[in-house]
């Protein structure tokens, strides 16, 4: 076996989206830090102790791609974005409306020209994760929010970007190009961009919301395509960059519904990512028909058929039948399997136990081994 696993040629038929449930010890430590009962250094020490334990659990589950569980984050997106220069967190008046519950009220705003900070804390988190893995056995997977997230969420644009969308877009692209290169320089060969912004196109409510914000949906689709492709165009040849498209994941609830049809030609036919992680765990996500627009043999599609929202174990035969159904539109060798999302997009986590989480991941690995051998 070669010294390093090359994720571009190694078929991770069983994969994961990234976030994992925070342990009771980690939750307690984060609360202690908020109450100034422990220092930031003490919290980092506990985070890394827990990361070490849960990396071993991922290995036991049979996964090849290993994450840090996003244990240093309160949110799957805001922590990274707030680590960029020119971006700050703030408390808006109205939180996002998830079905049946509301998360903490938080968002980000742009206060100055944006750029990537070479001291971004996520780089240190990645280096620690990578140090726990044998390069000929596992690959460290880094997750960060897509550039589209800052474009859509950074509504309070700094004065330097007023009436200058071109400058904003160019700076955002440069920021992500620099971030991708920085992770690569630290040893990252598998990067995933997480993105809930596409879900706005999937439903009437989402489209109406975009229009109320003053967006032309066709122009916004083109901007998203451009932002993503330009952000990753300089990625090194031996770096895998994928994208996870999500409809929301907070305490086992969601905020979006609808199939991929409204953006299918862009998502499946015009994005230059190496792979797409897609939600297909229930009727909210629609059918597999949009996969007919995949026009590349080197694009792999990760079917999120196992839900991370509940502890129920889906029957293997059912999952296998869904995979077969997807092969009507794309060859089996281009398909992969994973949960539809992470288990804890925010530090609160979904409503299931850690053991149930590990059972889910083992289930994904077992099915993948039986389907792809």
Automatic annotation (TrEMBL):
One of the protein's GO biological processes: methionine biosynthetic process
Keyword line: Methyltransferase, Transferase
Entry-linked Pfam families: Meth_synt_2
Ranges in a coiled coil: none
Keyword Methyltransferase: yes
Leading EC class: transferase
UniProt GO molecular function: 5-methyltetrahydropteroyltriglutamate-homocysteine S-methyltransferase activity; zinc ion binding
EC number: 2.1.1.14
Domain of life assignment: Bacteria
Protein name: 5-methyltetrahydropteroyltriglutamate--homocysteine S-methyltransferase
């Amino acid at each position: 076996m070669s010294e390093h696993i090359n994720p571009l040629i190694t078929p991770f038929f069983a994969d994961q989206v990234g976030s994992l449930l925070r342990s009771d010890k980690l939750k307690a430590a984060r609360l202690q830090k908020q109450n100034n009962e422990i220092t930031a250094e003490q919290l980092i020490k506990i985070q890394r102790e827990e990361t070490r334990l849960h990396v071993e659990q991922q290995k036991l589950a049979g996964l090849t791609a290993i994450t840090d569980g996003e244990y240093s984050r309160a949110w799957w997106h805001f922590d990274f974005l707030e680590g960029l220069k020119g971006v700050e967190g703030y408390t808006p008046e109205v939180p996002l409306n998830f079905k049946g519950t509301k998360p903490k009220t938080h968002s980000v705003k742009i206060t100055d020209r944006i750029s990537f900070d070479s001291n971004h804390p996520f780089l240190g988190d990645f280096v620690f994760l990578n140090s726990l893995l044998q390069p000929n056995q596992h690959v460290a997977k880094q997750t960060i929010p897509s550039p589209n997230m800052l474009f859509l969420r950074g509504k309070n644009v700094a004065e330097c970007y007023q009436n200058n969308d071109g400058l904003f877009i160019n700076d955002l692209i440069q920021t992500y190009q620099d971030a991708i290169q920085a992770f690569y320089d630290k040893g990252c060969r598998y990067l995933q961009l997480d993105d809930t912004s596409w879900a706005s196109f999937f439903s009437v409510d989402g489209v109406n919301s975009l229009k109320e914000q003053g967006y032309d949906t066709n122009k916004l689709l083109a901007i998203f395509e451009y932002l993503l492709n330009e952000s990753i165009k300089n990625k090194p040849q031996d770096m895998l960059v994928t994208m996870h498209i999500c409809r929301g994941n907070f305490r086992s609830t969601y905020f979006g519904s609808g199939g991929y049809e409204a953006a299918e030609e862009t998502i499946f036919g015009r994005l230059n990512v190496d792979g797409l992680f897609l939600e297909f765990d229930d009727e909210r996500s629609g059918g597999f028909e949009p996969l007919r627009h995949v026009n590349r043999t080197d694009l792999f599609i990760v079917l999120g058929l196992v839900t991370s929202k509940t502890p129920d174990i889906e029957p293997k035969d059912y999952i296998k039948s869904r995979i077969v159904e997807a092969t009507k539109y794309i060859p089996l060798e281009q398909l992969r399997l994973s949960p539809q999302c992470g288990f804890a997009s925010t530090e609160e986590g979904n409503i299931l136990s850690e053991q149930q989480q590990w059972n889910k991941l083992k289930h994904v690995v077992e099915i993948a081994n039986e389907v792809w051998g």
